[in-house]
Amino acid sequence: MKLFLTSNISPQEHQFNAGVWNRLEQKVRYWAKKNDGVFVVTGGVLKNGLKVIGDENVAVPMQFYKVILDNTNGKIKMLAFIMNHENSDLPLYKFVVSVDEVEALTGIDFFPQLDDAIEDKLEASSSYKSWSF
What we know:
Structural class: alpha+beta
Strand content: 15-25%
Order of helices and strands: HHEEEEEEHH
Distance between the termini: 46 Å
Number of strands: 6
Largest sheet: 4 strands, antiparallel
């Protein structure tokens, strides 16, 4: 008997996973290869009442996020994305939000080890001008 655990995955619709989400993942890989010091946190926005699948009742998020910190050469910058769980042809920068917005939605404090003055400033910004799209 095979046992397949789904405790460390977020189920995604194929059109989303192979579409706009894949474009975002490719862009993040590009940034990670281009720079030295990229940290990425990815997940689904979990809340009560979501559709569940499988014997383990794994929740299917209606939104997904990516939070990126780039500390290349000691110059820290951040970028965050929230996407509805549906495919889109919009350019990726249209999904950019502040890290504060993702933290408010998820209840997660992503970078608590940063100096508060730096953390507060970077997490409040939704500027993507210093990132190559």
